[in-house]
Amino acid sequence: MADLFDALDPPRLPLAEAMRPKTIAEVIGQKHLLGPGKPLALAFQSGKPHSMILWGPPGVGKTTLARLMAKSFDAEFTALSAVFSGVKDIREAIAQAEVARTRGRHTILFVDEVHRFNKAQQDAFLPYVEQGLVTLVGATTENPSFEVNSALLSRAAVYVLQPLGADELAELFERARAFACPELEFEDDARDRLTGFADGDARRMLNLLEQVQTAATTAGVNPVTPVFIDEALSRNLRRFDKGGEAFYDQISALHKSVRGSDPDAALYWLCRMLDGGAEPLYMGRRLVRMAIEDIGLADPRALEICLNACTTYERLGSPEGELALAQAAVFLACAAKSNAVYKAYNAARKFVADDVSRPVPIHLRNAPTKLMKELGYGKAYRYAHDEPGAYAAGENYFPEGMAKPGWYVPVERGMEAKIAEKLARLRELDRDYEARAGDSGA
């Protein structure tokens, strides 16, 4: 009777769990690690486990690889999540490993989201890894260089896992459809739409397929069309969180696209981030930074356009205001480029930070009182507007004994080309003045 009940009403596993690979041969993706002669393939073949950090985005097989490692090496598998675990849980896991060792069993200790453990918690693993009591497999979505302490990194190999590509997701889709809903047909565009929503995440793709199967069965839809996919699925945010590395990688890509004068790429990364949930005014502030750092005085309009785009967004909101941000991004990409002011500012800041506090020259000091005038404050200062061309040729505005540093070197592009011409003329006037002063002194 129990067997009949089980047959009629079997326990239902989520598709992502039911489809979890049982062998390395079933794993889709990560060929750079699992292909013939590749690092993890060799590790599995060796029969000798080693501690490692698996770094990659969600849904690319980090947990699966850890489980397969335990199976391949005939080891105990203990899993912790750094989100929910503390030092007490670590101690309990170590105690279980010690018990397993008395039975002649080694332990693979899997720590999901290992980057969320603080330094003390990460350090708690070190003696047991060194003793060989456990083989630590840490999984992280963040760059371990920043998020995992150096002592732990020095004892573990780091393997970088990649998002699944379109062909790999399509392969997984067909395998999952045949397993879970072979009677349900999908138009080619619908399959591509579904795998596109997955955004390289195998777990997400399987979860989405389950949602579509339920919706299609309920609505009596077969075959599934792209329009039905859009109606059945609520849009999930693209893969990045607002403090994670993927977020800053995309900001970097936007900035480099603007600097590289590629308006289409700038639009792509801007839209990627907006689509992923980035705050539009944050994007506006980044565009302002780009206008200052990479365009500068080659086209001063860039800063004005970016500031206006931020103001426009504040007035219009989404989605209309985002068009102003797009306009600013395209303008920045197409504008003449100069980082001359940025470089000059950084050089000046470094000089001032390293230099002594030089006094202001007497002739440049203000003289609001009689005593200051008697002390010579402001004496011999040449008022530029009273000089020919409103320029006091030969005048020195630096502290005594400080050579003119030449920090600002305008580029020969955009408006800065004209600035360069003007500065060259002014330097020539300085040389003529100094030459005349030298002749009269002689």
**Beta-strand percentage range:** 5-15%
What average pLDDT do the residues reach? 88
**Overall helicity:** 40-55%
What is the number of E strands? 5
Compute the CA-based radius of gyration. 33 Å
Question: What is the N-to-C order of secondary-structure elements (H for helix, E for strand)?
Answer: HHHHEHEHEHHEHHEHHHHHHHHHHHH
Gap between N and C termini: 121 Å
Uncertain runs are 4-8
How many strands, which pairing sense, and closed or not: the largest β-sheet? 5 strands, parallel
Q: Structural class of the secondary structure composition?
A: alpha/beta
What shape does the CA trace take? elongated
Strand order of the largest sheet: 2-3-4-1-5
**Count of alpha and pi helical runs:** 22
Give an overview of the whole structure.
The radius of gyration is 33 Å and the shape is elongated. It has a five-stranded parallel β-sheet, with helices on both faces. Helices cover 55% and strands 6% of the residues. Mean pLDDT is 88; it is low at 4-8. It is built from 22 helices and five strands. The chain has helices spanning 2-8, 15-18, 31-34, 39-46, 62-72, 87-102, 119-123, 126-131, 144-147, 150-153, 166-180, 188-198, 202-219, 226-232, 245-259, 263-275, 280-295, 301-316, 320-334, 340-354, 370-374, 414-441; strands at residues 52-55, 76-81, 107-112, 134-140, 157-160. α12 (188-198) packs parallel to α14 (226-232). The protein is an alpha/beta fold and 442 residues long.
